[in-house]
Amino acid sequence: MTQPILEIRGLVKEYQPGKPVLHGIDLAIGAQGITAIIGPSGTGKSTLLRCVNRLVEPTKGSIMMGGQDLARLRGGALRAARRRIGMVFQEYNLVERLSVMENVLTGRLGYVPLWRAWLRRYPRADLDRAFALLDAVGLPEHATRRADALSGGQRQRVGIARALMQSPALLLADEPTSSLDPRTAVEVMELMARLTGEAGVPVIVNIHNVELAKRFAVRIIGMTGGRIVFDGPPDAIGNDHLSEIYGGEDWI
Ligand SMILES: Nc1ncnc2c1ncn2[C@@H]1O[C@H](COP(=O)(O)OP(=O)(O)OP(=O)(O)O)[C@@H](O)[C@H]1O
């Protein structure tokens, strides 16, 4: 791997003292491509992703990005680091009563002065970029519609545009397709793969659908019980690995 964008060492998370959900994760993420994390429900995938942008507080360990330990940052330094990490959520997390365009512009919130955001006076360059992103995700004619008028697939496209509006150095996606029908799920993954590929932004995605993981990721991480039990390219993952990750084999 060339210089990793992210280097996680000995990451432990305990929501309750003495009951670790992550048991000392070591993981380096390359500077490009999609890394998919698969594993059964409750195995700590969301916790791992959320430790990276500190929506969850790590208990122990380091998360190095750009020479800084994200696990130790506070205040302004943490906010600055978060600007560089985009996030796409399962339930989209759009502001329902705002327009599609305004939702995309919130991706710039960490950059524009608060008074401008309050007055909704974004710089011209930001407006142009938001329109370009809406175009790229196939929603240019929806710019002025309220977010709550969109379908799930359309909302997730807005979620992707908003995350890219941040010009992130890294994108985290937590089950981005789990609320979508199978066809829309493929379309959303295709879009995310293409746009992040063009922008050169590496992605870490938690995903339940193993086929989608294999189709779009360059690397698959298999987790079970808060530990990594598989780490390799999509074509290296076999039924024995799936059985180890998810348990049993009658379902394979
Ligand atoms: N805020 C919290 N407080 C206490 N326990 C939590 C909290 N968030 C998650 N957990 C627990 O931590 C464990 C890991 O949860 P996590 O959501 O990270 O798993 P996951 O692999 O992402 O699951 P899923 O695939 O269902 O989203 C679970 O046992 C869960 O109940």
TrEMBL record:
The family database entries (SMART domains) matched by this protein are listed as: AAA
Protein's name in the database = Phosphonate ABC transporter ATP-binding protein
Gene3D superfamilies recorded? P-loop containing nucleotide triphosphate hydrolases (3.40.50.300)
Gene Ontology molecular function terms on file: ATP binding
Q: Name any one Pfam family assigned in the record.
A: ABC_tran
CDD domains recorded? ABC_PhnC_transporter (cd03256)
- ABC transporter domain residues: 6-250
Q: Which UniProt keywords apply?
A: ATP-binding, Cell membrane, Membrane, Nucleotide-binding, Translocase, Transport
